[in-house]
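#onboarding

Welcome to the new folks! Below is a worked example of what a typical request in this channel looks like: someone posts a single protein sequence, and someone else replies with the predicted structure as tokens. Don't worry about understanding the tokens yet, we'll cover that in week two.

Example request:
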Amino acid sequence: MVAPERTGTADPGEAPTATPPPAPAEPPRARLTDRIGSVEVLAALLILLIALREPLAGLLSAPSLATWTTVFVSVMVQAVPFLVFGVLLSAVIAVFVPRSFWARALPRHPALAVPVASAAGVVLPGCECGSVPIAGSLIRRGVTPAAALAFLLAAPAINPIVLTATAVAFPANPEMVLGRAVASLIVAMVMGWLWLRLGRTDWIRLPRRPDLDDARRAVAFWSAVRHDIVHAGGFLVIGAAAAASINVLVPERWLRVLADEPVLAVLALAVLAVLLSICSEADAFVAASLSQFSLTARLAFLVVGPMVDLKLISMQTGIFGRGFAARFAPATFVVAVVVAAVTGMVLL
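Example response:
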């Protein structure tokens, strides 16, 4: 007798067969990389430094490496306090200042908001390290990018601390203070208007910040501070290391040769300002020491440095995106050199 073929449908009189529950999956084995954190990495570095202390001591005694270390540390010491100040102010803007404030503080027309934002840099005693995160927060709060970028360029160049340092560095040439303020303000406004004309919104890629939207204000504030310190600080270290390397690799005799050619002198000091990456509070004293160059060339150094240098490009890349920095930095350099040269010929 042949048994009837069973189908997938259960017999109405037959109790359904219970499906056995799936076996619990084995927990994934912890990998070695999952167990290594920042504390373990720091401990390993300390052990390595202790083990190699004698060879490292011999390397650090080399003159070139000592120069590199001095320049790197000096850039970091100059920049970090203002970076922290800018990050704190950026967090305040991002968390506590309502969007409606900026609508009331700035003119509604973007073309008029650019000079107002540029002039606002006069009241902020900071350097380029702090202006970059502040500009990012302004854009997040609804400020037109043209005005935020104009503020980014003007704040480190025309604030009272920088202008006072310039006056102290050039006691016999007070016109350098006026030249720096006028040229820097013009560059900031021109770049803001150029962004209105040629800039595109998709060139600015601010990192997403969900931690600022749903958390309480105090939690969001410290989250913003931690994020910007780590994010901008990492790029600051890269820029400072690059500036220190340039200081060691560029021969000083090249500068003496270039100083004899007026046009090349302006270009040389503009490029040197980019490479040295000195904070705007200290660059006037470096410019004053370059006495073999003309005042116009040294003005170009003072105008270009706070707007385009290695650490600033690195920080702009980290906060606004690589595509933005690749377009904005070269354009700012060209405008700054031209405006500084013209201002120098008129005022100096």
